[in-house]
Amino acid sequence: MDVQDITGGTETPGIPPSLFDMRPGMAIRYDAPDPRLADYVTGYHLYAASGPGAMGLENWFLPGTANVRVTLNAGPIAVSIGRFRSDPLPQASLFGPTSHAIHTVTNGGAMIGFGISALGWSRFFDGPADRYADRIEPLSAAARPGFADRLVTLLSAVRDEHGVKPALDRFLLAELGPRVADEDQIRSIARMVTDDRPNAVADTAAEWGLSPERLRRLCKRHFGFVPKTLLIRARFLRSLVPLIEAKGDLDYSRIDPGYVSASHFLRDAHAVLGTTPRRFLHAQTEFLVASLRARAAVLGSATQALHRL
């Protein structure tokens, strides 16, 4: 795949190409997976940059679910998640579930990836998700034997961006593991995380007759974090994304009603972003802003962490 020929966009009917417009040399693309994968894969994404402006390019991305990513024809990439740093990024990598913003420094090339929901984690990975929380590992060290090599071979043979979705659909349907006994509970917990309702943790535990410790173990194994962290991440992103999309002056009256005050929201901002929302939005967020807009149009949610099953 020639990076310079990647234009980005989607073939999804009804979505105007202008939603994917970026400056020359940069492109993004999102695609929905096969419906049979919809509960397990949150979407496919492709980021590309070429030319002089692609060298030393900094970008920020929001925390979310786990992701598998493969780079093609790419220069060195450095990624930081909180205090964790991967430099250089492996060609095929697993980004574990994240509770901190992700900072990248890239040097041109293409990155193809797919998001893994908690249900997807139970189907594609054998180890507990919390082992990889806020970390990046070589995919070969985290996935089942041969998974990483098969994926790199597959994507290296894709001729253009239009072939990414069908190739990944075939691959992931073939790699999908058996249903686990906890699947219905995982689905219920996922809805608890994305639904904005009081007493969500207690209601979910009561619905399934789960002890607090059992609920905590399920969340750590399949989501990567304890329930409190998952709920804080969702509440923060429900507040931050509208602020990003609004442009102009930040209006904290729009934050999630779960926050008792703006200072409460700002404390979470420091924990998740490492800075204030205002300073974060003045950083290099070109890919972030474009991806929020494009992902919402194609996949229905601006961020993976708020993706509904």
TrEMBL record:
- InterPro entries cross-referenced by the UniProt entry: HTH_AraC
Residue span, HTH araC/xylS-type domain: 184-283
Q: Name one Pfam family in it.
A: HTH_18
Domain of life, per UniProt, equals: Bacteria
Name of the protein in its database record: HTH araC/xylS-type domain-containing protein
Q: Which organism is it from?
A: Sphingomonas hankookensis
